[in-house]
């Protein structure tokens, strides 16, 4: 990350203190930060706190000396790569939506050509008020961005939507907006992630150890590079990434249906999911009670989704599979690549305990249809995603 500049507009609300946390995290990424506070924001936290964390002057008053306001709001408007309003009250949203510019923040927003994102925080009833919602829709039509608030218990005691999005989510949006490399713009990418489950009875199922981290990392990387992303995910503990189409599934059959619904329109399909190969021969709709002896369950083969896709795939589509192996890594991966008619397979050895399923890192090998292999060092799943998409782009350009 190099020399990005972010202007933070802070408006008055109890969530103001969270903007301090955001600024400190942005600074850790070497992003230069300047702050404009509205008069009501100053009632919650002093400008000095923002000044100390941003290590820059904080602008509060439009008529602040020594600079004349015309110059300052224009120069501030020209300065940033991105403007974030955190927290954004109903008041600032309403003002900008209706062309009112009567203080430093609203005049700067009006004058800037940089992208402006609002992270609203307010009482649920206010947030749901049709006037506020109408203003938000209007701003979206004009190209302003929103980082949606979370739901939860609000400062006023009400429960509902209106809680400022988590600082880490705002940070993630910020980093991806700043780092935007649009080389996948115009491509539709279908990704699968996580395990599938095979229900046995109303309370039991079998599944596997897939955490979903690899597929989610690919989805985020593809989104950040401008692709239109559909992520079909089995049950995981990961929050769905923003800005993509997310389809949650449980079983192999549900994953197959969701994947097939989106397959024909996809340019690239990456199957990182650990799909169950077997399902129970006879699902019991009553809970299975314990008996005296052993319990024997019979499982039958379920769909090989990737193989189905390999049979259907068109010339221009790129199909990528994963091979998680405990032995004969290369041989098994090559066999899967050929059997399933893939363009590329990502092979990894699951026996290592410092990489693999639940880990943030992995050590993988890419093998292409033309039998070229690339051995990567151990790296984060996000970095693997980057290299994988680079490799996919190389294939698509040939
Ligand atoms: N896959 C799939 N449907 C299945 C099984 C696997 O779509 N029923 C996909 C996975 O998403 C992965 C690739 O096929 O991209 C290889 O998965 P893996 O579990 O390693 O291999 P299998 O084909 O199941 O073979 P085996 O279990 O014998 O290793």
Walk me through what this model shows:
InterPro entries: CoaB-like_sf (IPR035929), CoaBC (IPR005252), DNA/pantothenate-metab_flavo_C (IPR007085), Flavin_trans-like (IPR036551), Flavoprotein (IPR003382). In the C-terminal section; belongs to the PPC synthetase family. Pathway: Cofactor biosynthesis; coenzyme A biosynthesis; CoA from (R)-pantothenate: step 3/5; Cofactor biosynthesis; coenzyme A biosynthesis; CoA from (R)-pantothenate: step 2/5. Keywords: Decarboxylase, Flavoprotein, FMN, Ligase, Lyase, Magnesium, Metal-binding, Multifunctional enzyme. Residues 184-394 form the DNA/pantothenate metabolism flavoprotein C-terminal domain. The protein is an alpha/beta fold and 398 residues long. It folds into two domains: 5-178, Flavin prenyltransferase-like (Rossmann fold), CATH 3.40.50; 188-397, 3-Layer(aba) Sandwich (Rossmann fold). Helices cover 34% and strands 24% of the residues. It has helices at 16-28, 47-54, 69-78, 90-97, 104-111, 124-128, 130-141, 167-178, 213-224, 252-263, 305-312, 329-339, 381-397, and strands at residues 5-10, 32-37, 58-59, 82-88, 116-120, 145-146, 150-153, 159-163, 188-193, 198-201, 204-206, 228-233, 245-248, 268-271, 278-280, 299-301, 318-325, 344-349, 361-362, 364-368, 373-375, 379-380. The strands form six sheets. Strands 13-12-9-14-17-18-20-21 form an eight-stranded mixed sheet, sandwiched between helices. The protein has a six-stranded parallel sheet with strand order 3-2-1-4-5-6, sandwiched between helices. Strands 7-8 form a two-stranded antiparallel ribbon. Helix 1 packs across helix 8, helix 4 (90-97) packs across helix 7 (130-141) and helix 9 packs across helix 13. It is elongated. The two termini are 31 Å apart. Cytidine-5'-triphosphate binds at residues 271, 273-275, 277, 302-306, 321-324, 336. Residues 271, 273-275, 277, 302-306, 321-324, 336 line the site of cytidine-5'-triphosphate (CTP).
């Amino acid at each position: 990350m190099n020399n990005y500049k972010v202007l933070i507009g802070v408006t008055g609300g109890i969530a103001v203190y969270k903007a301090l946390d955001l600024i400190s995290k942005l600074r850790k990424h070497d992003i230069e930060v300047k702050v404009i506070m509205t008069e009501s924001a100053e009632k919650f936290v002093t400008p000095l706190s923002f000044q100390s964390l941003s290590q820059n002057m904080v602008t509060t008053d439009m008529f602040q000396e020594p600079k004349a306001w015309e110059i300052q709001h224009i120069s501030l408007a020209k300065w940033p790569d991105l403007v974030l309003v955190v927290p954004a009250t109903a008041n600032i949203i309403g003002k900008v939506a209706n062309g009112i510019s009567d203080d430093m923040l609203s005049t700067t927003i009006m004058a800037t050509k940089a992208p402006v994102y609002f992270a609203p925080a307010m009482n649920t009833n206010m947030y749901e008020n049709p006037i506020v919602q109408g203003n938000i829709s209007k701003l979206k039509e004009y190209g302003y961005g929103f980082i949606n608030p979370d739901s939860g218990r609000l400062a006023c005691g009400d429960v509902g939507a209106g809680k400022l999005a988590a600082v880490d989510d705002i940070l993630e949006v910020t980093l991806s907006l700043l780092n935007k490399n649009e080389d996948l713009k115009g491509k539709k990418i279908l990704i699968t992630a996580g395990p599938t489950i095979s229900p046995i009875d109303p309370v039991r199922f079998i599944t596997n150890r897939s955490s979903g981290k690899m597929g989610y990392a690919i989805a985020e990387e593809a989104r950040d590079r401008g692709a239109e992303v559909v992520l079909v995910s089995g049950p995981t503990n990961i929050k769905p990434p923003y800005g993509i189409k997310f389809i949650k599934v449980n079983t192999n059959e549900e994953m197959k249906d969701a994947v097939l619904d989106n397959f024909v329109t996809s340019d690239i399909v990456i199957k990182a999911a650990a799909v169950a190969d077997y399902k129970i021969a006879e699902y019991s709709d009553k809970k299975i009670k314990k008996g005296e002896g052993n319990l024997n369950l019979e499982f039958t083969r379920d769909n090989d989704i990737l193989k189905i896709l390999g049979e259907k795939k068109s010339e221009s589509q790129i199909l990528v599979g994963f091979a998680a192996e405990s032995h004969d890594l290369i041989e098994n991966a090559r066999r899967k690549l050929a059997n399933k008619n893939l363009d590329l397979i990502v092979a990894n050895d699951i026996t290592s305990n410092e990489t693999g399923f639940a880990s943030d890192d992995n050590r993988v090998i890419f093998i292409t249809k033309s039998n070229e292999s690339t051995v990567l060092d151990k790296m984060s799943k996000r970095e693997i995603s980057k290299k994988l998409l680079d490799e996919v782009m190389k294939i698509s350009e040939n």
